[in-house]
Amino acid sequence: MLALAAAGLIVAGYLTMVQLGALASAWDPVFGQRSTREVLELTRPVPDALAGVLAYGTEVVLLLARRGRLLLGLVLTAGGLASIALIIIQPAVVGAWCALCLGSAALSLVCSWRSATTKPQAPSRRSASPSTGCAPCSPTSRTDRSRRWRQVGGPVAGRL
């Protein structure tokens, strides 16, 4: 899922640079540069692809941190809904298509779908002790170690 979010970040970043004028035109082998230009100029002067950069960037950070499952779910849901809107707006409002925009929308939808269908990981069997924060130092671990020590005939097992 991290690879999908990173790919989306690259595509959205490229489209943002085109919208800001840092690049002359967008590469579009399917629908052509003219069609893509019409779609990207829809929200001028505000680059809407920048919202994709922020969303994909947030996804990448949350996935790397392995935290914030709720926030990640919200970002992915919002991205999925925005992607559906983008797919509808292109032919209905602009009357043109943009291959990279559709690719970014597809990546967002796949990320949303994968997040919705992936089960959360179960907690590990060795949980940390709340007081020490360390699994080997937990009270059950100490009890298990001393029980094993007595079974093997440690220094205190029946010698006193």
Could you characterize what this model shows?
There is one protein chain. Helix 1 packs antiparallel against helix 3 (49-65) and helix 1 (2-20) packs antiparallel against helix 5 (99-117). The chain has helices at residues 2-20, 33-40, 49-65, 69-94, 99-117, 139-151. It is elongated, with a radius of gyration of 26 Å. The chain is mainly α. 64% of the residues lie in helices and 0% in strands.
Q: What proportion of the residues form beta strands (DSSP E)?
A: under 5%
User: How widely separated are the two ends?
Assistant: 60 Å
Please give the share of residues in helix: 55-70%
Structural category is mainly alpha
Alpha carbon gyration radius: 26 Å
Taking the sheet with the most strands, its summary is: none
How confident overall, as mean pLDDT?
A: 77
Order of helices and strands: HHHHHH
Total strands: the figure is 0
Shape: elongated
Quickly count the helices: 6
Unreliable residue runs: none
Question: Secondary-structure map with pairings?
Answer:
Blueprint: H1 2-20, H2 33-40, H3 49-65, H4 69-94, H5 99-117, H6 139-151
Helix pairs in contact: 1-3, 1-5, 3-4, 4-5
